[in-house]
Design brief:
This protein is α/β, with parallel strands linked by helices. It has 17 helices and 9 strands. It has helices at about 1-35, 55-80, 105-115, 135-145, 155-165, 215-235, 250-255, 265-275, 300-315, 320-325, 330-340, 345-360, 365-395, 405-415, 415-425, 450-470, 475-515; strands at about 40-45, 45-50, 95-100, 125-130, 145-150, 170-175, 200-205, 250, 280-285. Strands 5-4-3-6-8-7-9 form a 7-stranded mixed beta sheet, with helices on both faces. Strand 1 and strand 2 (about 45-50) form a beta hairpin. Helix 2 packs parallel to helix 13. The longest helix has about 40 residues, at about 475-515. The protein is globular and about 75 Å long.
């Protein structure tokens, strides 16, 4: 009886969330049209806004961004679904597990390798050590795992995997980054999907075990919740679930059909889009089967985001257009949503410096026009926040606690210089060398990385004081918008200062301890 009541409540909750999401999405579409209507309003002082080449270009960019990152994402929420349960194993398929390493701490490597070896199901675990460390070779031997290394380090992780492919023969290749430790039932809940011969790869949701390790770690985890839950389930719903670098299972035949793991800063996405273009299908398993480690420091976050954004943008302007016609419409949308995710950086930068410019140099008509713009964008921002919250609440895994996502907002908003730099580097083909994401709390971010945010805050303060004191501007949405932007940047800078203070205190204590031991 209790079970029946519980199921009825769950069904009713699902029904309410589904319709709430649909209604919110419909309102969001209307708010997007209202936002665009700003361009076609007549202004007594400025005339027809659409006649301004600058405003017209900016609004075209807004349409492109909004259509993909807003409407596209919302659509994925509506079509999201979970895969059906499959057999726990397939007797005639052999499995090779690749754990990739390159100079990481011993305890991290040991943790991942032990967990991989302990997975239930017939498999062979290999440590792919690009650092050729003797202690890792001994570790692998003690655990009964294979150990593979190579002479060159060409193409970083992709080259490491391809070198291992040539020395192994498993039908299914399972890939784990060194910070992800799989649970014993990982293979039991994933390998069965390969009973369908058209499945080229299975991607398992990325989750993280270092909750509350630091403010950055918690904020970084929050930034991933939306993509790894509703967006990825929606991508699977349209046939476009993508690889994410770790927690992935790939059919060897599928990899061989595209010439192996594809190199680049976003090697996972490059491999994924090539597999889909070759006609292979994919599955997304939204289960926390191999928790990893989110960036614990500002340094780790910036290194990771610059690498990821630069690699993803490069694919957006190179490989995506070339393979576009070989993808289904669902796959085209899924990849476009993922590849434009970091456009948030240029979008923030445009609004930030437009605000500063108008505060300092804008006359009354220009400030009035921008004030009208803020009125038109406010409903869209509000609807987007509600839709994303409902989407996450509906599709999040039961182990994920509810959150306001405010830490994620602060972290992503303040990372705009990284995303903007990555976009410009991709457009002008500026190379960026591969650098592993730091995993420890010891890293310190150089203040030079935060110069853009600091300059922006100073200019916002100057602009606010100037427009209020000199231009006698009364309280308005313009001033509120400027204060909000400055506040988000300031919270980020304050968090960095706090982390930097802890770093120096820890270093001083360590130095004192070393001096006492001499």
């Amino acid at each position: 009886m209790r079970l029946t009541i519980a199921k009825s409540r769950a069904s009713f909750r699902e029904f309410l969330l589904t319709w709430a999401l649909r209604v919110a999405t419909a309102l969001g579409c209307l708010s997007f049209l209202y936002y665009l209507s700003w361009l076609f309003e007549k202004d007594e002082a400025l005339g027809d806004r659409w006649r301004s080449p600058l405003l017209l270009v900016l609004m075209i960019l807004a349409v492109i961004y909004g259509s993909v990152q807003l409407l596209g994402n919302w659509y994925l929420y509506l079509v999201a679904r979970r895969p059906k349960i499959t057999p726990t194993s397939i007797p005639n398929l052999s499995v090779d597990v690749f754990v990739t390493a390159c100079g990481e701490p011993y305890d991290l490597v040991e943790r991942a390798l032990k967990a991989a070896c302990a997975m239930r199901g017939n498999h062979m675990t290999w440590l792919l050590d690009d650092g050729a460390d003797e202690q890792f070779a001994r570790l692998a031997e003690s655990l009964g795992a294979g150990y593979l290394t190579r002479q060159d380090h060409l193409n970083a992780k992709a080259g490491n995997i391809n070198a291992a492919l040539a020395k192994t023969n498993g039908d299914i290749i399972v890939i784990f980054d060194i910070d992800h430790a799989p649970k014993p039932d990982f293979l039991e809940k994933t390998v069965g999907y390969f009973s369908d011969p058209k499945i080229g790869f299975v991607q398992v949701m990325l989750t993280f075990a270092n909750v509350q390790e630091s403010w950055v770690a918690d904020a970084a985890i929050e930034t991933s919740l939306e993509y790894y839950n509703p967006t990825s389930l929606g991508s699977y719903g349209v046939g476009g679930a993508t690889l994410m670098g770790s927690n992935a299972l790939i059919r060897r035949a599928a990899l061989e059909s595209i010439g192996g793991y594809q190199p680049g800063l976003a090697e996972d996405l490059a491999t994924s889009i090539s597999l889909h273009a070759a006609g292979w299908k994919s599955v997304y398993v939204a289960e926390p089967l191999a928790p990893g480690i989110a960036p614990p420091t500002f340094e780790a976050w910036f290194v990771q985001q610059l690498k990821w954004a630069r690699g993803v943008f490069e694919l957006l302007v190179t490989r995506y257009p070339k393979l576009f016609t070989r993808l289904t419409w669902g796959q085209r949308l899924a990849y476009l949503v993922r590849m434009t995710k970091y456009w948030i950086g240029p979008a923030v930068a445009i609004h930030l410096f437009a605000t500063i410019g108008i505060l300092i140099f804008g006359d009354a008509p220009v400030r009035g026009a921008f004030h009208s713009y803020l009125i038109h964008i406010a409903p869209l921002v509000g609807c987007d926040a509600v839709i994303r919250y409902l989407g996450l609440y509906k599709w999040r895994h039961q182990t994920i606690q509810r959150t306001s996502l405010m830490r994620a907002v602060v972290l992503v908003y303040a990372t705009w210089p990284i995303y903007l730099s990555a976009w410009l580097m991709a457009l002008f083909r500026v190379p960026l060398g591969f650098k592993p994401t730091p995993k420890s709390l010891d890293g310190r971010l150089s203040p030079i990385w935060l110069a853009p945010q600091l300059i922006a805050v100073v200019l916002l303060i100057v602009g606010l004081l100037y427009t209020v004191a000199v231009k006698d501007h009364r309280p308005s949405l313009l001033l509120l918008f400027a204060i909000l932007q400055g506040g988000l940047q300031s919270i980020f800078l304050a968090r960095w200062m706090s982390a930097d203070l802890i770093y120096w205190q820890s270093k001083r204590a360590h130095n004192n301890k070393m001096a006492m031991n001499k």
